[in-house]
From TrEMBL:
Domain HTH merR-type: 20-90
Keywords recorded for this protein, A-Z: DNA-binding
InterPro entries attached to this UniProt entry: AraC_E-bd, DNA-bd_dom_put_sf, GyrI-like, MerR-type_HTH_dom, MerR_fam, Reg_factor_effector_dom_sf
CDD domains associated with the record: HTH_BmrR (cd01107)
One Pfam family from the record: MerR
Protein name from the UniProt record: MerR family transcriptional regulator
Coiled coil residues, start to end: none
Molecular function (Gene Ontology), one example: DNA-binding transcription factor activity
């Protein structure tokens, strides 16, 4: 990891996320291989935020995960890299034309049917102003150990209390989180109208002993529909609507409790516009038992 203060004049504490990701860390989070990231850098599709002039190491900003997810989604629809580069500067109307042209070319050539389905649905949602639908992809979340803290809060803006508690308890109990710990949150069923049942989690390298209100357990590997977005959490409601339509049109159903992965959260930044959140919906194809998928 690299602190931004090492490569610019902003430095830690300026309201932005101060930590950048090495190429291997960014590769793991984005699902794009290291070799491909180097190629994307070379052609100008996804350029690192900083390259160390001495070592040549590439460093990426967490906000670039939004763009990387869009690249993966557009490649899944059959777009060439040069087209994806051009799409970076397109407005919504130009994107509509590009998507319609791609649909026509796929239908004329009678190519892969699932690509046609993806493009049709993207045209529909993009036309309704949901341009971020380009960020929906399917991916595998690996099995991992997590330390968790669960409690009730009155509203989501109070989630920071849970994070302060889990960090304080981990420090008190000597629980070691992963060097690049993944921060996750899950909302359980709401039985009380005045309270939210929220669980926050941090990844750990192995099983450890804990007590009091903390738990350590293993999360199994799962396939999810992933949506990475930047900005305020007020977007989540509309994203859920878009995701529901996408799941229906792609013949998927939810197989577990949705959860969020915080790549850049209120713990790290005071500006809502710099938040980078990944919404994950565990999925299986319709008609397949999730226990055997």
């Amino acid at each position: 990891m690299l602190f931004k203060g090492a490569c610019d004049n902003d430095g830690p504490g300026n309201g932005r996320n101060d930590v950048m990701l090495r190429i291997g860390e960014f590769s793991a989070l984005s699902g794009i291989s290291i070799n491909m990231l180097r190629h994307y850098d070379k052609i100008g599709l996804l350029v690192p935020e900083h390259v160390d002039p001495m070592s040549g190491y590439r460093y990426y900003d967490k906000e670039q995960l939004v763009h990387s997810n869009r690249i993966v989604a557009m490649k899944a629809m059959g777009f060439r890299l040069e087209q994806i580069i051009e799409a970076k500067s397109m407005n919504q109307q130009e994107m509509q034309v590009l998507l319609r042209d791609k649909l026509a070319s796929k239908e004329e050539a009678k190519l892969i049917q699932n690509q046609i389905t993806k493009i049709r649905e993207t045209i529909k949602l993009n036309g309704e102003g949901e341009a971020d639908v380009l960020s929906i992809v399917t991916k595998d979340i690996p099995e991992m150990w997590v330390v968790s803290y669960r409690n009730r809060i009155q509203e989501f803006s109070h989630e920071g209390i849970l994070w302060s508690t889990i960090m304080e308890e981990c420090s008190k109990q000597g629980i070691k989180v992963s060097s690049n710990a993944m921060a996750m949150a899950m909302t359980h069923e709401r039985n009380d109208e005045n309270n939210l049942d929220v669980e926050v989690m941090l990844s750990v390298d192995k099983e450890q002993i804990c007590h009091d209100n903390l738990k350590i357990y293993r999360i199994p590997r799962c396939k999810v529909a992933s949506f990475i977005f930047q900005g305020s959490y007020l977007k989540i409601s509309s994203i859920n609507t878009v995701m529901a339509i996408w799941l229906e049109n792609n013949d998927y159903e939810i197989s577990g409790k949705p959860f969020s992965i915080y790549h850049n959260s209120p713990r790290e930044s005071t500006s809502e516009e710099s938040y980078v959140t990944e919404l994950c919906f565990p999925i299986v194809k319709k008609g397949i038992d999730s226990r055997t998928a």
